[in-house]
């Protein structure tokens, strides 16, 4: 299988979906710029033109409502937020209407297949309002589907699945992953929504990870293998619906659970997965569940503060070793240098 | 250019009559505490819904707000499905999942109503975007109140609709109050909402919202332009709600002082139903006997519908999770 970057995979998924379905259009700030949302909408614009890929004013809430109204008339709009944080302004339409549409109107008003793509920033001094990931907040509300592709194949596959789904779907794409390369099928193969993926099999500890933390967990697992520790990594992929069966099967197998997330612990996905294990796999647990997430403060800008703010491969490896009551050697070497140069 | 036929004028009256008699009957029944859903009755504002909806085609789509019964009915919704929704019955238009503020009836061109101020202005704008993309001669309409014009989404939507030249008619029902807050604490003195709409390059008109014929004429005029591809239009209808913000009572019954009984009575003098009836009689377009016969017919429809709605079935608890995704 040929390799694509995460950004190329997002683009290919979008283009193939648009080829299959003429009802799909893409809008949002900067979608038709030459930079094309870090390259992910350039090919769609080239292929399908400005009638299907077009810019929008900065009006996140109305734009989401407009997408809902177009979807109610048979369109499949894709609304793009170049940064997650701006999506707070769209919460009324997204949560009060899109998420509830099918239920609240008794199934009689049809469905609103709106897809929202939102990019999560990290590092490079992007600071408190350009780096948040809203997946736990959005996933709290029944009616939305919320997915976080971590690997290039899922960047394409989840895009395809979202654009075939009949309800609203939010895709949270992590900016730090856009350059990640990996095998991606050439055919339009959707990744089913609501299904987690065991991306590395192991026997000692389960790491359930979301988005960028999947890649960090894989890096940690490779290092820990040298120490004789076998880590199973579960890519959560979808936080609503949540694939409880895959998570529980892994926890029951290893008896130890670490959850690594790209947002905060409190009321977040790491807490949800920990609660799932406590309620449904308690007897299989050999020790306390651990959570690894953002430090409990807003995202700082200055480099040493940023370094202390984000969990990374070495943090995961250290936590896994401590869960096994083993002491950690120097692990900082497994964290790649931050060579991000933008565009942010 | 639009001189409505006698048949149109008679239909406009009949529509106002049907809305009035339905809403008054529902408000009376509401006092029994068997309709357990917050309800914003539209008594006094019927001419807006009746006048605008008469000017629409079957393929057009209507969106509404929390005070939505008039629009639902004027667009051809059944009294039965509305009453059943208020009673929480499975036969309700939203199967008892929505309540008074979340009505739907796509089969007759009423998409949805919603409780959040201004929300459906954007949604109607989006339906209009779809119509324009498809090159179909359909129009989307959003009804909303004067308070929605204080929401940011109103301006976002106007800006977008005008920028893209979308076929959407925005109908503001200005009833002077947002819950209990009068205009003067919410908008600068001398505010004309039409000026605001015109600033966004919309064609805008203000009309007596208690004159169903005037509303119909103004809506028809603006819709002509919308259908000709001249972009969105804004219609402000000056009107007044007779009942409390939410619930079946008059404010004076509840000893509320935010507006006076004299003010209410002055507006009741401008009753849209009586004015429409007087006009028909004065023009010889209907007789008193006909008006009375129509009233009897409507009352019969309403009585039959509410009785059947009340006797409807509760949703099965097992259906709680239907249609979540």
From TrEMBL, chain A:
Cofactor: thiamine diphosphate
UniProt-listed Enzyme Commission number(s): 1.2.4.1
Protein's UniProt name: Pyruvate dehydrogenase E1 component beta subunit
Superkingdom of origin: Bacteria
SMART domains per record: Transket_pyr (SM00861)
Keywords: Oxidoreductase, Pyruvate, Thiamine pyrophosphate
Family matches, as InterPro entries: THDP-binding (IPR029061), Transketo_C/PFOR_II (IPR009014), Transketolase-like_Pyr-bd (IPR005475), Transketolase_C (IPR033248)
Any one GO molecular function term: pyruvate dehydrogenase (acetyl-transferring) activity
Keyword Transcription regulation: no
Domain Transketolase-like pyrimidine-binding residue range list: 4-180
Broad enzyme group: oxidoreductase
UniProtKB/TrEMBL annotation, chain B:
Record EC number: 1.2.4.1
CDD domains: TPP_E1_PDC_ADC_BCADC
Reactions mediated catalytically: N(6)-[(R)-lipoyl]-L-lysyl-[protein] + pyruvate + H(+) = N(6)-[(R)-S(8)-acetyldihydrolipoyl]-L-lysyl-[protein] + CO2
InterPro entries xref list: DH_E1 (IPR001017), PDH_E1_Alpha_Subunit (IPR050642), THDP-binding (IPR029061)
Keywords (A to Z) from UniProt: Oxidoreductase, Pyruvate, Thiamine pyrophosphate
Cofactor names: thiamine diphosphate
An example molecular function term from Gene Ontology annotations: pyruvate dehydrogenase (acetyl-transferring) activity
Location of the Dehydrogenase E1 component domain: 18-317
Leading EC class: oxidoreductase
Keyword Amino-acid biosynthesis included in the entry's annotation: no
Function comment: The pyruvate dehydrogenase complex catalyzes the overall conversion of pyruvate to acetyl-CoA and CO(2). It contains multiple copies of three enzymatic components: pyruvate dehydrogenase (E1), dihydrolipoamide acetyltransferase (E2) and lipoamide dehydrogenase (E3).
PANTHER family reported in the protein's UniProt record: PYRUVATE DEHYDROGENASE E1 COMPONENT SUBUNIT ALPHA, PYRUVATE DEHYDROGENASE E1 COMPONENT, ALPHA SUBUNIT BACTERIAL AND ORGANELLAR
Name this polypeptide is given: Pyruvate dehydrogenase E1 component alpha subunit
The organism's taxonomic lineage, starting at the top: Bacteria, Pseudomonadati, Pseudomonadota, Alphaproteobacteria, Rhodospirillales
């Amino acid at each position: 299988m040929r390799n694509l970057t995460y950004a190329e995979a997002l683009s290919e998924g979008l283009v193939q979906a648009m080829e299959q379905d003429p009802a799909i259009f893409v809008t949002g700030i900067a979608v038709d710029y030459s930079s094309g949302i870090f390259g992910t909408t350039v090919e769609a614009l080239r292929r399908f033109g400005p009638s299907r890929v077009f810019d929008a004013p900065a009006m996140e809430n109305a734009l989401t409502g407009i997408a809902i109204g177009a979807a109610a008339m048979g369109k499949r709009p894709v609304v793009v937020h170049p940064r997650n944080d701006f999506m707070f302004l769209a919460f009324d339409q997204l949560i009060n209407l899109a998420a509830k549409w099918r239920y609240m109107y008794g199934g009689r008003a049809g469905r609103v297949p709106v897809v929202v793509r939102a990019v999560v920033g990290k590092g490079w001094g992007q600071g408190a309002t350009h780096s948040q990931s809203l997946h736990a907040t959005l996933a709290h509300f029944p009616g939305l589907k919320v997915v976080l592709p971590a690997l290039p194949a899922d960047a394409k596959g989840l895009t395809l699945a979202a654009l075939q789904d009949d309800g609203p779907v939010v895709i949270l794409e992590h900016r730090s992953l856009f350059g990640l390369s990996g095998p991606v099928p050439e055919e339009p193969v959707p990744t089913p929504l609501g299904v987690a993926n065991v991306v590395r099999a192991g026997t000692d500890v389960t790491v359930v990870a979301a988005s960028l933390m999947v890649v960090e967990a894989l890096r940690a697992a490779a290092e820990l293998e040298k120490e004789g520790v076998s880590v199973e990594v579960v890519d959560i992929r979808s936080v609503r619906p949540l694939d409880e069966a895959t998570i529980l099967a892994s926890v029951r197998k290893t008896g130890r659970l670490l959850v690594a997330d790209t947002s905060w612990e409190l009321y977040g996905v790491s807490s949800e997965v920990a609660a799932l294990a406590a309620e449904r796999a308690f007897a299989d647990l050999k020790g306390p569940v651990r959570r690894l997430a953002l430090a409990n403060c807003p995202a700082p800008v200055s480099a040493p503060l940023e370094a202390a703010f984000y969990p990374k491969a070495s943090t995961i490896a250290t936590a896994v070793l401590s869960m096994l009551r083993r002491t950690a050697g120097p692990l900082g070497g497994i964290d790649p240098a931050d060579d991000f140069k933008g565009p942010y | 250019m639009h001189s409505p036929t006698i048949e149109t004028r008679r239909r406009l009256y009949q529509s106002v009559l049907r809305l009035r008699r339905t809403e008054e009957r529902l408000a009376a029944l509401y006092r029994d505490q068997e309709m357990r859903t917050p309800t914003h009755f539209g008594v006094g504002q019927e001419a807006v819904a009746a006048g605008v909806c008469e000017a629409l085609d079957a393929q057009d789509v209507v969106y509404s707000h929390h005070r939505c019964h008039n629009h639902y009915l004027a667009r051809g919704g059944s009294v039965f499905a509305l009453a059943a929704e208020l009673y929480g019955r499975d036969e309700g238009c939203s199967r008892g999942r929505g309540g008074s503020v979340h009505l739907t009836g796509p089969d007759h061109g009423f998409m949805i109503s919603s409780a959040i101020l201004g929300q459906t202005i954007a949604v109607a704008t989006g339906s209009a975007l779809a119509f324009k993309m498809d090159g179909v001669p359909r129009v989307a309409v959003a009804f909303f109140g004067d308070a929605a014009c204080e929401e940011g989404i109103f301006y976002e939507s106007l800006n977008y609709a005008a920028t893209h030249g979308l076929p959407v008619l925005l109908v503001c029902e200005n009833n002077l109050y947002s819950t209990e807050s009068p205009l003067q604490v919410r908008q600068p003195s001398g505010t004309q909402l039409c000026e605001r709409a015109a600033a966004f390059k919309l064609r805008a008109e203000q009309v007596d919202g208690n004159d169903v014929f005037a509303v119909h004429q103004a809506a028809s005029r603006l819709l002509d332009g919308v259908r000709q591809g001249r972009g969105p239009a804004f219609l402000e209808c000056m009107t007044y709600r007779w009942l409390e913000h939410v619930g079946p009572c008059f404010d004076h019954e509840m000893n509320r002082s935010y507006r006076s009984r004299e003010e209410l009575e002055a507006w009741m003098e401008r009753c849209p139903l009586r004015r429409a009836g007087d006009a028909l009689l004065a023009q010889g377009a209907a007789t008193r006997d006909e008006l009375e016969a129509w009233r009897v017919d409507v009352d019969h429809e309403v009585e039959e519908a509410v009785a059947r709605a009340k006797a409807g079935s509760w949703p099965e608890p097992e259906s709680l999770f239907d249609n979540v995704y």
